[in-house]
C-alpha cells in the first residue's frame, strides 16, 4: 500500500442529511477531492473545505457525467498524487453501488482506501414510508435485488422464480423503468398477483412520494401517476403496516417545496427547521459573505474597540466577523474593556452569547428603527459608539444615534456579494420544478435573487423576515404573502408554520 494519499468510499445515505454517519461527515470535512454522484444529499457538499476539489460524476438513467472506468481512473489518480479522496455514493457503496468494483481498482493500484458504510435506501426508504422490511407478524426474511436487469432477456443473473418463491419481504432498487416486466416475472414465478407492493420515490427527503398497489396493478398505477426513478420498491405483507405507521408523510409541511435564499453557511438552521416539519427544502443561496473592502480599517476598529462606551451589532454576521478578528488580536476577553453591547435582535444576541458576552440593549422591534428607538431610553449624548455593520448597511442607525448626540464610528465588518456557485443545481431545479414558497431574510437576498433572472413560479408565495425586506420585494413587483411578526429566523419559522396551517386546528 502507498503511504501517500487515501481514498474513502463513503455511503451518503438515502437523502435525509440526518442519516449520514458521523464518520462520513469527518471524511468529507478532510477531503482534498470530493467525487460525488447524483444520489448524494447535496447539503453534504457544504461540509467540504473551500479549497476542496469537487467533481460531479453522477449517473442518472442513460446520462453519465463520467463512465465507471473514468471514475475508477479518477479516484486512483488523485489518491496516487497524495490526496485525501472521498468517493461519495448515495445509500451504501456496497449495495448496488459498484463500491466493490472501485475498491478492487484501488487495491490493484496499491493505494490506501477505506470503506465507510451508509444507510441504504433499500431499508431507509421503506422505513420513511412507514413500512418495516421485517415484522414479526409478517416475515423474518429479506431479499434484495436490483431492478436494472431486464427480466425478459434470455440469460439473466437474477432468478425471478426463486425470488418469487422465497418467503418474506422483497426489495428491489432502480427498477421503475422495468416495473411491469418485473411484476409479471414474479407472478409467473409463483408469487400471488394480489401481493402488496409499494414504491417510494426520493425516499427520506421532502420530495418523497409513495404509491401502493399489488403485483397485478402497480405498473398501471405508476404509469397513471407518472411515477419516475429514483425509487425503491418493497413487496410483501409488510406494506400493510404503512396504514398504521406512515409517520414521515403525515408531517404538516409535507409536500410543500420551500426555497431558502440565505448564505450557504447560514442556510442550515432554517433548512433544518423547515425540513423537520416535512418541507421539501431547496437551498438556493443568493448572497455570499466576504471580507470588507477596507480590511485595514476593520482591523483597526477592532483593535480599538475597548475605547468605546457602546458596541452596536446589527447582524449575527457582524458579531462573528468582529469577535473572530478580536480574538486573533487579543488572547484575553478582558482586553475588550467594558463597553455596553447593543444588538438589533435576538438572533444577534444569541451570536454574541456564543462568545460569552452579555447584551445590555435589545429592541422590541428587531429592525434598525427599533434599535434607534430603544436607544432613546438611554442617555448616549457625548458617548462613543462603534457600530459594527455590513458594508452596504442603511444609514438608519448612524443617523439615529448621531441625532441623539452620540459620537459614532462605523466599522464595516463584511460585505454581501452575489452567490455565483451552484454546486447542487438548485437554480435549475427551481426553474423546472418551481416552488410553493421562497423565503427572504434580507433585502440583499431579494436583490440578488432577482439578479439570477429566474422566472417566478405560478402560485408561488414569498415570505419576508421584516418590513425592509418586504419593501424590497414590492419594488420587484412581488407582494409578500406574509411578513414575520418577530423579525428574525424563529419569527420567520413561526410565520411559515402559520402559513402552512401547522398551528391551526
Write out key terms for the chains shown.
single chain; alpha/beta; Rossmann fold; 4 domains; 5-stranded parallel beta sheet; 5-stranded mixed beta sheet; 18 helices; 32% helix; 21% strand
Mind explaining what this structure looks like?
Helix content is 32%, strand content 21%. By secondary structure, it is of the alpha/beta class. The chain has four domains: 6-118, Cobalt-precorrin-4 Transmethylase, domain 1, CATH 3.40.1010.10; 123-249, Tetrapyrrole methylase, C-terminal domain (Methyltransferase, Cobalt-precorrin-4 Transmethylase, Domain 2, 2-Layer Sandwich); 257-286 and 419-499, Rossmann fold (3-Layer(aba) Sandwich), CATH 3.40.50.10090; 295-414, Rossmann fold. A five-stranded parallel sheet has the order 3-2-6-1-7, with helices on both faces. Strands 8-9-12-10-11 form a five-stranded mixed sheet, with helices on both faces. A five-stranded parallel sheet has the order 14-13-20-21-22, sandwiched between helices.
Beta-strand content bin: 15-25%
Count the E strands: 22
Largest sheet: 5 strands, parallel
Q: Helix count, per DSSP?
A: 18
Distance between the termini: 63 Å
The number of domains: 4
Low-confidence stretches: none
- Order of strands in the sheet with most strands: 3-2-6-1-7
CATH fold description of the largest domain? Methyltransferase, Cobalt-precorrin-4 Transmethylase, Domain 2
